[in-house]
Specification:
single chain; about 210 residues; mainly alpha
Length: about 210
């Protein structure tokens, strides 16, 4: 069987000459045109033609083998091998070329990025060192212990209670005396200046006292 196939392979050139000069010339020319399109056309149309050509060769090759037409079968097998090798070469060439193009595009993008970054450094006086921005003239926070923090929180709580008491005291007096209300507001302002009350808390309680004066 192997010798038969090798002999059929040797007869492929003469068989092709017979096809292009015999009665099957038209079919041979059509097959050659489809083969060339399948070889070199890389768009969607060429892909469809390759699939059709491969299916045609497989079907006709199987029929040729069953009919013992080994020369025709080897002709089809040879065309498929040539198609595979040529398409592989084209794929490798296109891939290498695309990789080079992508590398050039990436290099240009990196160069532009470095240029923009360098321009920004020059404008901002950036030296490349990341350093925290610290004002040497600004007062630095003094670290305190946990016990001191607890004492400060307790003092703040007592001051808040005093502020609440001042408001309640003014309310209990019925706000008959405007002087009592103003004294309560003065105490609230002192607590705000001492940092015990926030601006919102001070304004809220002051507005509450003023509303009672009516």
């Amino acid at each position: 069987m192997v010798h038969t196939l090798l002999a059929a392979l040797e007869n492929v050139p003469s068989f092709l000459g017979t096809l292009f000069t015999g009665d099957q010339k038209l079919y041979a020319v059509i097959a050659l045109v489809v083969f060339i399109i399948a070889l070199f056309v890389s768009n969607k149309f060429g892909k469809i033609m390759r699939y059709l050509y491969i299916i045609f060769c497989c079907v006709l090759g199987t029929v040729s083998y069953l009919r013992s037409q080994y020369t025709l079968m080897m002709t089809l097998v040879t065309s498929l091998v040539i198609l595979a090798i040529v398409r592989l070469i084209i794929y490798l060439v296109v891939t290498v070329r695309q990789n080079r193009i992508n590398a050039k595009i990436e290099a240009k993008a990196l160069a532009k990025a470095r240029k923009r970054r360098g321009s920004w450094k020059n404008k901002q006086g950036y030296s490349g060192d990341v350093r925290p921005i610290i004002d040497p003239d600004a007062p630095q926070p003094v670290p305190i212990s946990y016990a001191e923090r607890v004492a400060i929180d307790e003092a703040a709580a007592r001051a808040r209670e005093q502020a609440e008491g001042a408001v309640e005291e003014a309310e209990d007096a019925g706000y008959a005396d405007r002087r009592q209300v103003m004294d309560a507001i003065s105490k609230l302002k002192d607590l705000k200046d001492a940092g015990v009350l926030t601006e919102e808390e001070f304004n809220e309680k002051k507005q509450e006292l003023y509303s009672r004066l009516g």
